[in-house]
Every structure is written in C-alpha cells, then in structure tokens.
Design brief:
- The structure holds two protein chains of two kinds.
- Helices cover 27% and strands 19% of the residues of chain A.
- Chain A is of the alpha/beta class.
- Chain A has two domains: 2-138, Aconitase, domain 4 (Alpha-Beta Barrel), CATH 3.20.19.10; 140-170, no CATH class.
- Chain A has a seven-stranded mixed β-sheet.
- Chain A is globular and about 45 Å long.
- By secondary structure, chain B is α/β, with parallel strands linked by helices.
- Chain B has helices at 5-14, 41-47, 72-88, 100-106, 138-147, 172-183, 198-201, 205-213, 229-235, 302-312, 330-338, 341-347, 399-408; strands at 23-27, 30-34, 59-62, 91-93, 115-118, 132-135, 149-153, 156-163, 191-196, 222-225, 256-261, 268-270, 278-280, 291-294, 322-325, 350-352, 374-377, 393-396.
- In chain B, the strands form five sheets. Chain B has a five-stranded parallel β-sheet, with helices on both faces. A five-stranded parallel β-sheet of chain B has the order 16-15-14-17-18.
- The relative contact order of chain B is 0.15.
- The chains are: A alpha/beta, B alpha/beta.
- At the A-B interface, helix 5 and helix 7 of A face strand 1, helix 3, helix 5 and strand 7 of B.
Chain lengths: 170, 419
C-alpha cells in the first residue's frame, strides 16, 4: 500500500473529543457532514486545509479517550490517508485498522508541517520527500495486516461470515 | 511460570494457556452497547451481514448517553435501538434506567473471572469485580455479536500495590487521580492495570468501581482487582451464573510493580484540559467556578451522593453556581430518595438529571457550560469540549470536593466539612 500526501502536525494526547466532538452525534449521522468538524477543538480551521491523501502526524497517545469508532471513520471520510504517531491509544488503534484507516506507529519527531510524505506500509517505510529522509515503521501484528488487507473488519465478515484469521493459533 | 489475572482470564476464554504478548481468539461472556455510538453497533452488525445474535442473553443495549432524547437525530437512534431489541429479543435498558457502567455490575452482567466487552472506553469499570472488561469500537462489538468471539492481544500487567488507609475527606477518586497523575495518561497503554493492597481492600465496592472506571485514563486495557468477601457479598443475588474468581500467581511476571502509601494523600484535582494534570487541592484553592457536577459512571453511586449530601445538607449552593446531580441508576436514585439524600441535595439547590451520562457526555445536551465557565465535576474526563463547549474549563475531583466547591463558589477543601 503506497500512500502520498502532505503533513498536518498535531501534538501529544490528541483525544477522540478533539477528533470529533460528541455534540455532533446529536445533530447528524452523516459522516461527510461530521468530517467538516474533524479535529475542530484542536484546530477549528483544520477541515478546510485538507487535500485528499494528506496525513495527520502526531506525538504520543493519539486517539486517547472514548471508544468512538466515529473518530477514525471521520478522519477517513475527511479524505486523510493515514495517521502517523509516536504512539496510539489502544482502542483507537484497533478501531482505525477495523475501519481500514492505516494507523502507523513511528518516530515522527523530524516531520514538519507541510512536508510531503510517501508511506510504503508493505515495506514498513515512510519517505519524507521534502527532507530526503526515511523513517522505519513498527510492523503491524499479522492479525491486523490480515484485517487491513481485507479492507477492515466489516469487509472481513462480509467475505467470510465470521472470523477467519490465519495468523491466530487455536 | 506464574500467570497474571489478565493472562488467566484470557487463557480460560481462549481454551489454552496464554502469556502476555500473544494474540488469542476468545469467547466473550457478555457484550454491552449504548446509544452514543455513531454508527450504532447494531447498524454495523447488519452491515456485516449479521442476522441473529450469537446469544441474545449475552447482549444488552443501553440508552444512557442522551437519555432525554434532546434532538430528532438522537430520538431516531433510540428508535433503532428499541426496534433491534424487540426483533432480537435481547436485553434493553431504557432511558432512565441508568448508566451502562452501573447497570452491567448492578444487574449481574459482569462476574469474577468473566470476559466482557462494551462499546465504551469505561467498560474497564467491571475490573473492580475481577472481570476482564474492556472497551471496543462498534466493529469489534458487531463481530462479537455475530460470532461470540473476539481477538485480543494478551496484555502485560502493571501492578499497583496500594498500602495504608485513606485519611478522612480523601476518597477513591483522589487516589485514582493521584495514580494517573503519577504514571500519566499513557503510562499503562496496551497494558492491564491491577490494583491490590490493604488500601483497596478497605474500599467499598462503590469506591473500587471508581478506581477501575478510570484505568483507561492511564491508557490501560483493563483495571483489575481481586474478588474478596466484599465483592462476593455485593454480588449476592445479582446473578445465578456460577463463577470462579481469578488471582495472579505469586510468581506471575509483571511489566512493573508500583507501590504507593495512601495514608498521607490529600484531595486531588485534575486541571483543564488533561486528566493527568493532577495537583493537590491546596494548589487550586479559591479558583472561582460557575458549575459543579456530581455525575457520571465514575462517581454518582449511592456512597458518592451520600458524601455530597452530608456536605450540602442544611446549606445553600453559592448563588453564582449551578449544581447538577445525575444518579448512576434508577435503584440508586430511589434509594437516595428514601434515605433523604436527594431531598437534601435538592434543598441545597441541586438540579437533577436523568440517570445515565447527562452532564458528562456532551452528546447528552444537559448541563452544557457557557464560554469561559469553570466547571468542577466528578466525571472521568476533562478534555476540552467534553461538555459540548470547547470554551469551558473542566476540573476533575471527588464528590466531596465538588460539593464543597459548589457551596463556596470556588474550588474548596472538603476536609473542613468532614465530620
């Protein structure tokens, strides 16, 4: 999977309320409408800056807080291709893979606002085209790769009717 | 080699011995899902091709996140929830029954040694009953609703050994805030937290549920405790299912063992906008507040309401403060009425919300703060925008600290009201 886009930088501890405020759950069920409010409480102008394929790049504990799967769904609906972070909160990490949004754990320290990146997730490598550097990516557990390759958990179930994961020993 | 509680419970449900780091497919004992998810788990269940639940007795829907149905969008989501429950003949806890994290323990859906998932990050609350309980997204829940199974990475465990006795005026909430401040908001990410020691044994079940509830605020997957006589007495009559408590072996391997002496602890406050920005109350005394909330699955159980009422009784809330109180469940609300707890709170100026997540989840549209308001709350999160207004400032504290602050119109030391 080869992804290419520009970087939007966020800090540490970006919680799911910042990604999508819970008040919008009462006003709409439309993901496209919700996507207009993505990251609103962290950067009110963010939705207007996104070009399709762009990356969110953050520090530690990205996606902490609630279990709302709305968070990775809204990031995806906003046209962003992946989130790169030093670390993820575990429920967000699982939810992202389940909805087919790559959540990439790597050292994001040298990446800056507006940098152009190319992420080769199969090879476990992110190239910073703007700076001519390369960043190694922590590999996903095989079970998550299986789900991501199927396009997420819903697609996996549509295909197999139940869990059909080769990488899990019974 | 010895095993931790987490390794044993996941192993038992996977049908084989497991160790931290392994990935297992495990049978779940119970699945909880509420009205606050978008999409709802029941919608993803149908999208995935789900027709019937793997076992309708092991699944409950709860209408708690916006129990007053404040908008047509919410009312329509509630309608879907009711229709699904009727069609599938599964359990439904209607609006007003209470918060999912009070209902699951209270109605016997989480027992020692069991494996429980819920579409809410605070599902870890039931760890106080020795259940491995963890929050999941709606896709994971829907997959389990169809198959009865879910895959788990067996977590390492951080063991918190809590020694000594909490001083008067210092509560379970102060203790867990102190631990979160100490290890930080991602200090236990991908791990299980285990709380043991005489300080835990001395806590009531209400206090233990408060501590396990906030395990996720340090990033933990579960907040486990051992089942003791208090646990077993509390569970009596709640479920007919047999269960077997689980303990960590003496030679179990922990990622870390952290010891704390709680006997000198003071009331703690988490400052805006991070749960781990925790300070002793002395450092924020006198900070003016405009709203005080005694709410949420963290701290609105009977003991919490009782402590608040003991401070508020015979006094009046400061004229510049709104005090919102939301009992965790209907039985708690009824008992608090019977004992004169709620009348005392209402006479003092408290305003009641519908049992559930009102004035904690912004989606409830109840107790929304104004721009620039400072709100002290017993909830578990103080993120910016949490109560539906990013221009408000949230402080987390115990019910006693919130009640004392409501009286004084500023952050106050509850210990001067201790009897």
């Amino acid at each position: 999977m080869l992804l290419r886009g520009r970087v939007h930088i966020f800090g540490n501890d970006i919680n799911t309320d910042y990604i999508i405020a819970s008040k919008y759950k009462s006003s709409t069920t439309d993901m496209k409408e919700m996507a207009r409010h993505v990251m609103e409480d962290a950067d009110p102008a963010f939705a207007g800056k996104i070009k399709p394929g762009d990356f969110i790049v953050a520090g530690t504990n990205f996606g902490c807080g609630s279990s709302r799967e709305t968070a990775p769904r809204v990031i995806k609906a906003a046209g962003l291709s992946a989130v790169l972070a030093k670390g993820f909160a575990r429920i967000f990490f699982r939810n992202a893979i389940n909805v087919g949004l790559p959540a990439v754990e790597c050292d994001t320290a040298g990446i800056q606002e507006g940098d152009e990146l190319e992420a080769d997730l199969g090879a476990g490598l992110v190239r910073n085209i703007s700076r001519g550097t390369e960043i190694r990516v922590a590999p996903l557990p095989p079970v998550m790769l299986e789900l991501l390759n199927d396009g997420g958990l819903a697609e996996h179930f549509k295909k197999h009717g139940t869990f059909h994961l080769q990488s899990i020993r019974r | 080699m010895g095993k931790t509680i987490a390794e044993k419970i996941l192993g038992r449900h996977a049908g084989r011995e497991t160790s931290a780091g392994e990935i297992v497919m495990a049978d779940v004992d119970f699945i909880m899902s509420h009205d606050g998810n978008r999409p709802l788990s029941i919608q993803v269940f149908e999208e995935m091709g789900g027709e019937t639940l793997f076992d309708p007795k092991k699944f409950a829907l709860v209408i708690d996140h916006a129990p007053s149905s404040p908008t047509p969008v919410v009312a329509n989501a509630h309608k879907l929830v009711r229709q699904f429950a009727q069609r599938q003949r599964c359990l439904l806890y209607e609006s007003g029954e209470g918060s999912c994290h009070q209902l699951m323990p209270e109605r016997g859906h989480a027992l020692p040694g069991e494996l429980v998932i819920g579409t809410d990050s605070h599902t870890c609350t039931y760890g106080a009953l020795n259940a491995f309980a963890t929050g999941v997204g709606v896709s994971d829940a829907a997959a389990a609703m169809i198959s009865g199974k879910l895959w788990f990475k067996v977590p390492e465990t951080v063991r918190f050994v809590l020694k000594g006795r909490l001083p008067a005026g210092v509560y379970a909430k102060d203790l867990i805030l102190h631990l979160i401040g100490s290890v930080t908001a991602d200090g236990a990410t991908y791990k299980a937290a285990e709380y043991v020691g005489d300080a835990v044994a001395a806590l009531s079940m209400d206090g233990r549920l408060t501590i396990s509830n906030m395990a996720v605020e340090m990033g933990a997957k579960a907040g486990l405790m051992e089942a003791d006589e208090k646990t077993l007495a509390w569970l009596k009559g709640r479920s007919a299912r047999p269960f077997e408590p689980v303990f960590s072996d003496p030679d179990a391997v922990f990622a870390d063992v952290l010891e704390y002496d709680v006997s000198k602890l003071t009331p703690q406050v988490a400052l805006p906008h991070q749960v781990d920005k925790v300070v002793p109350v002395e450092e924020v005394l006198g900070k003016p507040i405009q709203q005080a909330n005694i709410v949420a699955c963290t701290n609105s159980r009977l003991e919490d309401l009782e402590v608040a009422a003991s401070i508020l009784s015979g006094r009046r809330v400061h004229p510049g403060v709104r005090l919102y109180v939301v009992p965790a469940s209907r039985p708690i609300q009824i008992e608090a009425m019977r004992r004169g707890i709620l009348p005392a709170i209402i006479e003092a100026g408290g305003v009641l919300g519908v049992p559930g997540c009102e004035a904690c989840s912004g989606g409830s549209q109840f107790g929304v703060a104004a721009d620039g308001d400072h709100v002290i709350t017993t909830a578990n999160r103080n993120f910016r925008g949490r109560v539906a207004n990013p221009e408000a400032f949230l402080y987390l504290a115990s019910p006693a600290t919130v009640a004392a602050s409501a009286l004084e119109g500023k952050i106050a030391d509850c210990r001067k009201y201790s009897r």
